[in-house]
Amino acid sequence: MDRRQRKTREAIFTAFIELLSKKDFAQITVGEIINQADIGRATFYSHFETKDFLLKEMSEELFCHIFDAMNEEKANHRHIFDCNAPESVFLHLIQHLKKNDNNILELLSSQNNELFLQYFKQNLGELVASQLTLFESRKSEKLPESFWINHITSTFVETIKWWIDNDTRESPETITEYFFLAV
Amino acid sequence: MDRRQRKTREAIFTAFIELLSKKDFAQITVGEIINQADIGRATFYSHFETKDFLLKEMSEELFCHIFDAMNEEKANHRHIFDCNAPESVFLHLIQHLKKNDNNILELLSSQNNELFLQYFKQNLGELVASQLTLFESRKSEKLPESFWINHITSTFVETIKWWIDNDTRESPETITEYFFLAV
DNA sequence: CACATTGCTGAACACATTGTTCAATTACAT
DNA sequence: ATGTAATTGAACAATGTGTTCAGCAATGTG
């Protein structure tokens, strides 16, 4: 990809994240993004069809990053994912979030857009489904699988949201514990 | 309140609900509401400052209705809320929703606006907090109260959403059971 | 019934935002 | 160095927002 394109794309993402940390998705205008990114109007529209697509593409990119990073570490340090700590996938994810490399935590904060959370939940759902054996129990047998998966995923998302609203005071370990207690 | 005002207000609400059952809040325009309600533009704005306020006021009115109705039945048929079925408050709420008197179910459906769900959750949170003793357990002792309340409330909302997405095939009793199993 | 009050109307208005177009300019890759 | 491709900025139509106002209609009060 052309260096100019990369630069522009990066500038738009950065500007967008900056704005999202201040106000709702709904009340951000393309004009503001353009100003913040310091690019021409036509340039924006040559990159993204609409503001909604921008959010969508950015979400996908961010979640790819974080889940790819997790998989990589999974491959390198296999010991982290041993049988003695099967819940570590989620601890690991929370630790990643805590680093806030790509401002994901800021973006997930509830004052910001629900759409972003929706994309997060979607990606998370796949992870949960792949780790379903972790959550087998007396109650899971009595519940429809789709209900159960949705419950676990939602609980994780809500745990993260609660954590953020509490200014991420608790350690990732504590939050992981809360999550597994609640679910 | 003037009969004309009541009629107009009702017409706006009805039109709004009709539109919300078809498309997202975000893509409904004031013009559409006006057409559907068959009123003048100035009239709309003399009733509601913006589209957002319309949603807010309508939500409050709907939730007042349903929670008032519940309290009334609570007073009249005290036996429904006896000690043998302490969970019946939630069963009762679900039964109310199932009746769909005010199209609340339709409005809660996830394809529609998150703002509406937010208002629902807010009202529900108060109910949950007042019924907190129902949910005391080993795990609730180990979790911060605010986390616990949020978890219960979210689980209820997610249960309802899952139910709706499944076309409310299950009976209110079954859904109540799922909720109490999950939480 | 007559009256003053209040609400409704609908058109016109200024304003903001969106998404497109285009010709001129600039940066890129090889 | 050159052809290719991205960026620019201004101008554009189209749509939506929220306000204003003068005229009309419904209300309920005496």
Walk me through what this model shows:
The structure is a homodimer of 183-residue chains. The first copy, chain A, has 10 helices and no strands. With 183 residues, chain A is mainly alpha-helical. Chain A folds into 2 domains: 1-48, Orthogonal Bundle (Arc Repressor Mutant, subunit A); 54-182, Tetracycline Repressor, domain 2 (Orthogonal Bundle), CATH 1.10.357. In chain A, helix 4 packs parallel to helix 7 (114-130). The radius of gyration of chain A is 18 Å and the shape is elongated. The mean pLDDT of chain A is 89. The structure holds a DNA duplex (30 and 30 nucleotides).
Quick gist of this model?
In chain A, 71% of the residues lie in helices and 0% in strands. Chain A has helices at residues 3-20, 30-37, 41-47, 51-76, 88-99, 104-108, 114-130, 138-142, 145-165, 172-182. The longest helix of chain A is centred in the middle third of the chain and has 26 residues, at 51-76.
- Low-pLDDT runs of 5+ residues of chain A are none
Task: Write down the oligomeric state.
Answer: homodimer
The CATH homologous superfamily of the largest domain in chain A:
Tetracycline Repressor, domain 2
Q: For the record, give the distance between the C-alpha atoms at the N and C termini of chain A, rounded to a whole number.
A: 44 Å
What gyration radius of chain A follows from the Cα positions, in whole Å?
18 Å
The pair of chains with the biggest contact is: A-B, 20 and 20 residues
| Integer average pLDDT of chain A | 89
Number of strands of chain A: 0
| Strand residue content of chain A | under 5%
Structural class of chain A: mainly alpha
Spell out the helices and strands of chain A N to C: HHHHHHHHHH
Q: Given this structure, which CATH class of the largest domain in chain A is correct? A: Mainly Alpha
Structural domains of chain A: how many: 2
**Helix tally of chain A?**
10
Shape of chain A: elongated
Stated plainly, the CATH topology of the largest domain in chain A is called: Tetracycline Repressor, domain 2
The largest pleated sheet of chain A is described as: none
